[in-house]
Amino acid sequence: TVRIRAKVDEPGKYTIPSRLLTEFIGLLGNEKVELETTEQGLRVVSGHSETTIKGAAAEDFPVLPSHQPTTSITLPASALRQALEGVIFASASDESRPEISGILFRTDAQHLIVAATDSYRLAERRVATLSTEGPEQHSIIPSRTAQEILRLTPEDDTVITLRLGDNQAQCLLPDTEVLSRVIEGQYPDYHQIIPTAWSTKASCDSQELLANVRATSLFCKPGINDLALTLSPEKKQILLSAANTQLGQHQGSLPATIEWPTLEMVFNYRYLLEGVQSLGGDDTILEFQDQNSPGLLRNPKRPDALYLLMPIRQ
Question: Measured between alpha carbons, how far is 138 from 106 in angstroms, rounded to an integer?
């Protein structure tokens, strides 16, 4: 629901095709628009044009549902925007497992935790809230709803409100209200697989890592996207390599601070690339236990963000 300023001579309501109206209004530019309902439809007058769009009686529009939230939180719009940008890409596109096709919104006394996973990687952001009322809540928001909220959320510190319930979620933005059903089901307890200790740790320049991943990706096998990542403390380097029987092979390296021992793992280059990009910052920290356990990527200046990446097992 969106509210905009207007001079109303006579209140009324009407239902019209949204796509047609959006495309038509977009072609009018920044002209004043007059709307009037007639027996023929919605009359739109602007500049030197007059148009009538056929629609239906407002009574035919579905009744908007009422919302009974259990938890309400307020936070800056920019904080929610950064959180959604940092996780939304990691949600599953396949809806065969609906619970991971959405975005997890979880609350505690002082934070909103936003997470997304497709079972191969996981992104999480923790946002400090301005206020929280009600019990801790877990709600799985459909990705399409989350993308719409992201599109509508301003980039400044405008205070917005999220109201979460057992069956619905609501986002209150300036002059705009988004109400959505939540996805039923239990979100995976991903905390069990987040490493609490590491055996090999590396720190490197984020831009150099991204450049090397992009170069190496050109030689990855299509459909597998396998990129070998070797942490070499003796050489003080991260080595990246890929081989393709049709195209050839490539090996690159970049300087890094590495704590023992040497470790080699294989990752999907696209997941690695998106993880480093989402964390941002000048440096990236990579932490691993062994070649078969998930790796943890972090931005040293962003303790509120993490990215978990499963290796390709050989």
Answer: 5
φ/ψ region of 150 (left if φ > 0, alpha if ψ in -120 to 50, else beta) reads alpha
Q: What beta strand segments (E) does the chain contain?
A: 34-37, 42-46, 49-53, 71-76, 102-107, 111-117, 121-128, 131-133, 138-142, 159-164, 168-173, 176-181, 200-205, 226-232, 237-244, 248-259, 263-268, 283-288, 295-298, 305-309
| Beta carbons within 10 angstroms of residue 301's beta carbon | 11
Digitized pLDDT (tens) for each residue of the chain, 314 residues in all = 999 999 999 999 999 999 999 999 888 878 889 999 999 999 999 888 899 999 999 998 988 888 888 999 999 999 999 999 999 999 998 878 899 999 999 999 899 999 999 999 999 999 999 999 999 999 999 999 999 999 999 999 999 999 999 899 999 998 999 999 999 989 999 988 888 888 999 999 999 999 999 999 999 999 899 999 999 999 999 999 999 989 999 999 999 999 988 999 999 999 999 999 999 999 999 999 988 889 999 999 999 999 999 999 86
CA distances from 75 to 98, 145, 171, 173, 280 (A): 27, 18, 11, 11, 22
**SS3 for 308?**
strand
Nearest to 106 by CA among 6, 186, 11: 186
**What share of residues in the chain are helix, strand, coil (percent, to 5)?**
20, 40, 40
Ranges assigned E (strand) in 147-225: 159-164, 168-173, 176-181, 200-205
Q: Are 111 and 124 in contact (CB under 8 A)?
A: no
| Cis amide prior to 261 (ω within 30 degrees) | yes
pTM of the predicted model as reported, rounded to 2 decimal places:
0.87
Is the CB of residue 90 less than 8 Å from the CB of residue 117?
yes
Q: Which two tokens stand for residue 29?
A: 């530019």
Give Rg (Cα) of the chain. Answer: 25
